[in-house]
Amino acid sequence: MADEGTNPPDFDAFWAWWGAGGAAACEAGIEAGTIEDLVDELNARVHALSPELTWELGPSETSAHRLVVSPEGNPAARATARRWLLAAPEPTETWTYADARPADPDPESGSIRVGDTEVDFAEIRVAATRVGHHVDVAVHHPLLRDLPEQARGVVVFISLDHTLGETDCETWIGNVEPALDPPADAVTLAGLRDLVAEVRADAIGEDGEPTWVMLQGELDGSPLMAVAQVPLASSFAPHLDAHLAVDVPFTDTTDEGLPAPGALDDLRALEDHVTTRLAGSGRLVAHETGRGRRTLHYYVDSARPTAGMVEAAVGGWTQGRVEVVHTPDPGWQAVRHLRT
């Protein structure tokens, strides 16, 4: 999301340059081994979108070359990178595009140099614990003990990105820490990739859509019910960078403050109406219900006038005043307590 008083990124200008000669120049530079001559030009074009973005060129599984524009884990820049990708031309046999660094086909190949220390990925071992729909990891390499704390973090996070790619790393990895001693029951980086693939397969349907889980809790003795999509991570839809909380009161309640059948039908109808009005500009990711209120958690594209659309959609609700609160939230922190 652009800061107030700044111009929004001009994706059309980037892709116009790319189509008018930028792609051809990059292809020629790669083939001739002179791509370094285009570094300043690519830096200027990418940084005109956001100074927090980086880029790289490489091959892909489906094309000769791939241009990656990455936010490098920065939630504030992730939306810009995704909007850049959504504006991209159709892939060809020559070029494909990505808004995050992909995984390496061989996770145990290669190494990273930190100062004078060469860390071989093949020697990394990971204690990986599945917790619900994510994996907590402790990453070990025999040389970590010799590195300062900051350098250890560099090794850990680069090895995870190398193994899983930026998107899967942000989506499915939970707690991360370096392990100075060899952990018990450790797996290789390839074994970690297999475990993450299992978690992903359990959460994502064959149509590519997330599954949903039901959660139960209690507040001051009253029951709370929640339903949330899995994965509940901003990397799933990074261009939806603002949280839209739609707080809906209902009067037809059970003794426990949950919706009676009539109210439940009305709430579902309102949810469908709001979701339809948002169309491709937003997505319902969770809702929480209790004590006579339901909060619908939407994430929306801050570049579009979504708050006004929703306020108009809920104007006919007859069971109390619906509150709509729009908050910038590129990291999806507002629903973090519902992540499983």
Explain what this protein looks like in three dimensions.
The protein is α+β, with helices and mostly antiparallel strands. The chain has three domains: 11-98, no CATH class; 111-203, no CATH class; 211-338, Alpha-Beta Plaits (2-Layer Sandwich), CATH 3.30.70. It has helices at 11-32, 39-49, 75-86, 149-172, 189-203, 261-278, 306-313, and strands at 54-58, 65-70, 95-98, 111-114, 117-120, 125-131, 134-140, 173-179, 211-219, 222-230, 242-249, 282-290, 293-300, 323-328. A six-stranded antiparallel sheet has the order 9-10-12-13-11-14, covered by helices on one side. A three-stranded mixed sheet has the order 1-2-3. A hairpin with a 2-residue loop joins strand 6 and strand 7 (134-140). Helix 4 runs parallel beside helix 5 (189-203) and helix 6 (261-278) packs antiparallel against helix 7. The chain is globular and about 70 Å long.
**Unreliable stretches:** 1-5
Which structural class best describes the helix and strand composition? alpha+beta
- The number of domains: 3
With strands numbered from the N-terminus, the spatial order across the biggest sheet is 9-10-12-13-11-14
Organism: Nocardioides plantarum
Protein name: DUF695 domain-containing protein
Pfam families: DUF695
Key attributes of the depicted protein:
Alpha-Beta Plaits; DUF695; DUF695 domain-containing protein; alpha+beta; 27% strand; 32% helix; 340 residues; 6-stranded antiparallel β-sheet; disordered N terminus
